[in-house]
Amino acid sequence: MRHSFLVIDDSKLHHQMYRLIFSRGSLAGSTVYFATNGKEGYGLLAAHPELTLVLLDLNMPEMNGLEVLERRRAEALHPHIPIVLVTTEGSVEDEARGRAAGAWEYLRKPFQPADVELLVSRAVAQSATTA
Amino acid sequence: MSRDENPFGELLQDYVLECLPLAEQIADAFVELERQWRDGDPADDLLASLAGRLHTVKGNSAMMGLAPAQEVAHALEDACGLLRRSPERRTDASASLLVAGGELLADLVRNAAPDLDPVPAASFVERVRRWMEAEVSLLPGTLPERRRADRRTGSDAAGSGKVDSVVRVDFRRLDAMLEVLGEGLIQHSALAEAYRGLVRQTGGCDELERLDQAVLALEKTLKRLESTLMDTRLLPISTVFGRFPRMVRDTAEGAGKRVRLVHSGGETPLDKAVLDRLSEPLLHLVSNAIVHGIESPDARRASGKPEEGTLRLDAAPMAGRVVIRLGDDGRGLDELAIRKKAEGLGHEVRSEDAIPLRSLIFLPGLSTADTVSALAGRGVGLDVVAGAIHALGGTIDVATERGKGTTFTLSLPVTLAIVRSLIVEIDHERFAVPLAHVAETVRVEPETIREINHRGVTQWRGDLIHVADGGAMLGTAADRIEPRRFYVVMAAGGRRRGLLVDRLVGHQDVVVKGLDPTLGRPDVVSGTTILGDGRVACIVDAVRILEGGRRAG
């Protein structure tokens, strides 16, 4: 099955990393949308209700990860799409705030491709049970 | 989950491109912190602004499995956290620790590789730990044990990592690859020329159509290979800028000046070969600006300026080249004194003369020690600097205002390996003139070139410019009677000059080869290249021709 993903991250390096992850193994052939800030990412989220999963970086200029989550909840935008908040070690409080703001899961750097694959399969399984 | 091998190893270059500017900013900020603390400014905002960048470098390094950079960033993050909580620890000693750490971090990122020596990072981390424990004895309640444990697991996780998909390559191999590519490009041109010959002879057919497609496709592939190869050679200019904050600090201290360095555009990419040869002349300009350009704090106060001088260093890509600006807010150049001095050296430089100041200050005669005071100290070695920049195919220019400051503007090619050129023919020989220095090509109309003092002169865009014969200039062997049909207007650093040629052949990217010393060419040739038809062509050193414009002609 073809999946589509949205990556919201201001780091070009991370875009490349996700590009690698989504071009390997069972995820090969996925469609990936990239945004470099929260504002742009929110627009893409609104435009793509078919997304399998969103990977949202916490620290970004122009609307950070938490702001994206809060606005999405306030506007009830595609609540069925799971959003993963990406953090760096030592941001436990932010992770808690992210969960409170509606993040489905969090992913802590440094992560491995397998971590992302696991999240994807969980998201797919979950959407199958709720669908 | 296996941590044996980093899955993102192939992104090492992307990592450096993204993190090096951040690490340089961090290193600069530490120098700035030291300065502000000395002035009694707690610099809370600056300290706070570092957290995000350190966090990013730490996270990215961890993702790449680069444990030393990750650990140093982590240690600096901890140290900054402590300093934010404890203003009383914002001392010179703490600042030195941060400055050393910032520099180490920038080094680790700059030289990022999976097999980097872990010792400097480990010993720095240990230094920070001891420095932080000095705090613990005063303030019970912090948790050095937990921190140490964190760090240990961190290093275990990444310390064993090896990134198989990254190979460090000797730069000479990249040069060799480029040379091979150059041959490929030449062979392609030969193929294309043979194709055109066939079309002329046969009038074309379906097979030839297919050949044409194949030749076009080959050209596209070669161009792609070329741009990939060029990208591999590019490094951010911050690899050079990164050395400046410390150097500025030390030089200023030695000269009894107070100087702040502000720089931007560090991410601008340049060929490593250009960077290597750029750092020395740039260092020279920076130290000149500090020693001679910026006044002493007393003098600055007396003229109503802030005691601290500002040095601005900016880089930006511009039309296929890189422009670097170095500006100071010092005393500026003393134009009168310079003109007088140049006159003393036998140059005709009446102030109403068209020769601009910017040409004068790069004259070799002005670099003697006794001109230092006359030139407000700025004559030192500028001819050497200009020579080095010109040798890179670059240009240097200066703008100055008495009492306000001086700005040097350098324009450099992104690479030395391939030069976009105009191919011209003189006495049946071909020459490549770098397009960067070509202002225009003009067809010679009868009577438009007059002779004044045995030198050809013509009107070009409202100015009188000298026009020299290409054959005489470049030493072609010919006794010709027929007049040349075109002249190429070359320009650099405010100088312009025409070069008479027989034929304009076209534009081409030429791959530069070194000059065969046995060739016995005049010094106005900077290298050779091989053209599509296999002929060797000399690359014209336009800058040198422009410089020599006053004596040869």
Topology (SSEs and partners):
The complex is a heterodimer of chains A (131) and B (553).
Chain A: E1 4-8, H1 12-21, E2 31-35, H2 38-47, E3 53-57, H3 65-75, E4 83-88, H4 92-100, E5 105-109, H5 113-130
Parallel strand pairs in A: 1-2, 1-3, 3-4, 4-5
Chain B: H1 12-38, H2 44-63, H3 67-85, H4 92-110, H5 119-138, H6 144-159, H7 171-202, H8 206-233, E1 234-236, H9 238-241, H10 244-255, E2 259-264, E3 269-271, H11 272-293, H12 297-302, E4 309-318, E5 321-328, H13 335-344, H14 357-360, H15 371-374, H16 382-391, E6 395-401, E7 405-413, E8 418-426, E9 429-434, E10 438-443, E11 449-452, E12 455-460, E13 463-469, H17 470-474, E14 486-492, E15 495-501, E16 503-511, E17 525-530, E18 536-540, H18 542-547
Parallel strand pairs in B: 2-4, 9-18, 13-15
Antiparallel strand pairs in B: 1-3, 4-5, 5-7, 6-7, 8-9, 8-16, 10-14, 11-12, 12-13, 14-15, 17-18
Helix pairs in contact in B: 1-2, 1-4, 2-3, 3-4, 3-5, 3-6, 4-5, 7-8, 10-11, 11-16
Structural write-up:
- The complex is a heterodimer of chains A (131) and B (553).
- In chain A, helix 2 (38-47) runs parallel beside helix 3 (65-75).
- Chain A has 5 helices and 5 strands; from the N terminus they run βαβαβαβαβα.
- The two termini of chain A are 16 Å apart.
- Helices cover 44% and strands 20% of the residues of chain A.
- The radius of gyration of chain A is 13 Å and the shape is globular.
- Chain A is of the alpha/beta class.
- Chain B has 4 domains: 7-138, HPT domain (Four Helix Bundle (Hemerythrin (Met), subunit A)); 172-232; 236-413, Heat Shock Protein 90; 418-550, SH3 Domains (SH3 type barrels, Roll).
- In chain B, 48% of the residues lie in helices and 21% in strands.
- In chain B, strands 10-14-15-13-12-11 form a 6-stranded mixed beta sheet. A 5-stranded mixed beta sheet of chain B has the order 2-4-5-7-6. Chain B has a 5-stranded mixed beta sheet with strand order 16-8-9-18-17.
- The radius of gyration of chain B is 29 Å and the shape is flat.
- The A-B interface holds A 11-14, 16-17, 20-21, 59, 88-89, 109-115 and B 1-3, 7-8, 10-11, 14-15, 17-19, 52, 55-56, 58-60, 62-63, 65, 157-158.
